[in-house]
Amino acid sequence: PEAFEVLQAYGILVADYQVVKGKGDLQKAMEKLGKPIALKVVSSEILHKTDVGGVMLNLMDYSQAEKAYEKIISLNQGKAAGVLVQKMIPDGKEVILGAKRDSSFGPVVLFGLGGIYVEVLKETSLRVVPINRFEAEEMISETKGSDIFKGLRGERPLDTEALVESLLRLSQLVADFPEIEGIDINPMIVTEKRAVAVDARILLAKA
Asked: Which of 36, 50, 113, 139 is least surrounded by Cβ atoms within 10 Å, i.e. has the fewest?
């Protein structure tokens, strides 16, 4: 949740979410956010949530969500700090945005196709921070499979301008804070009208 707050402070759109710490708040969160929802473990002990079963997707009713909540909260020997309830984003393509501090070049930003594409293509694009609009556009266009954003086989074109804006804001964020060692926005969902972060983490350098 802290990573989401930082991204939002820099104008990067985040899927609506709420952190709950009890079943009583779970139903209220579902009513507020709408369906379907995802549930994700919140814990300082768990870095890769999916690997430990800490992510449940496309939950449509409260009974489903309640069972998922019980499973997630039981992870990490009861040390979970809560459960993040998040609105699912339909009908988009997954991409990966990232930033890291390279020992030779300093901060760099990364872009890649996500979901099934990242496993097949195994390709990302990198640029040294700070980047300008042209470089952000170039990062997107030079990746294999970038034509999917233009709308293939009758699909509508996706909002690449929102994606460019997100890359520019990510570049500014990592440039502003040297204590940030790395940022992963994985995935960001790009639709016809927006680009929305649905999972994120920020790693800080050791003091």
From this structure: 50
